[in-house]
Design goal:
The chain is mainly alpha-helical. It has eight helices and five strands.
């Protein structure tokens, strides 16, 4: 009851709803013939083959059947060090999976981290820049970013003031420089859970899905 009211133009960190949007970016590359569902991850990230992961495919990453963990054992340490996304990808490449790819299902944010790295390798853009070019700009999602740009923090009325604060877990209460409300995390652009957006913009993306991947007369994704 003591919480402040949410402003009309509020923006939100939408966490794991980021994952299917990144997955759509991967599917767009598949439609364009730049990779296939059955391609091995090592074709794009050769260093991933360690620890018995050579047979892991793009399909395994998309369907949470890779055997990778949700988070790295060093997740907290990496965030405390303000590590870049590449450090999370490198850490994932070093892991031995919990089971052989395709044998079971286990929710795995780190699989989505790898998909973000593959998007970057194939497009030459950051994952956030790629999603902006292919989806957010065409759909006029003007208040959406995977990783808040520096300009959001500048000026007398910075855009970041519109971001609704998240109630932080007890173990992050003192972690003001790396928790979900920190500048580090807002700018990090986690493909597995870092998208900042508004209900309106997210509604535009949902409508795009409901119309079978069409935007006006243009077919952006096949139905």
């Amino acid at each position: 009851a003591s919480s402040p009211k949410i402003r009309q133009d509020a923006m939100f960190l939408i966490a794991s709803i980021t994952k299917p949007i990144v997955a759509m970016g991967v599917m767009l590359l598949i439609e364009r013939g730049q990779l296939t569902l059955n391609d091995r991850v090592t074709e794009f990230l050769p260093e991933f083959g360690r620890g018995g992961k050579h047979g892991t495919t793009i399909r395994h990453l998309l369907t949470h059947t890779s055997g990778l963990p949700d988070m790295l054992p060093t997740n907290t340490e990496l965030r405390k060090q303000h590590s870049p996304r590449s450090a999370f990808v490198s850490g994932t490449c070093e892991l031995t999976p919990d089971f052989p790819a395709g044998r079971s299902v286990q929710y795995q944010s780190m699989g989505i981290a790898l998909l973000g790295a593959i998007i970057e390798k194939l497009s030459g853009l950051s994952c956030g820049q790629f999603l902006r070019r292919e989806f957010f700009d065409p759909l006029e999602m003007h208040d959406t970013e995977l990783g808040a740009p520096d300009r959001w923090f500048n000026g007398p009325s910075p855009i970041v003031d519109r971001i609704a604060e998240i109630r932080i877990a007890a173990d992050q209460a003192d972690a003001t420089d790396w928790n979900w409300n920190s500048r580090y995390w807002r700018q990090f652009g986690a493909p597995w859970g870092g998208l900042l957006t508004t209900p309106w913009d997210l509604g535009l993306f949902a409508q795009f899905m409901l119309t079978g991947g069409r935007l006006g007369e243009k077919q952006i994704l096949s139905s």
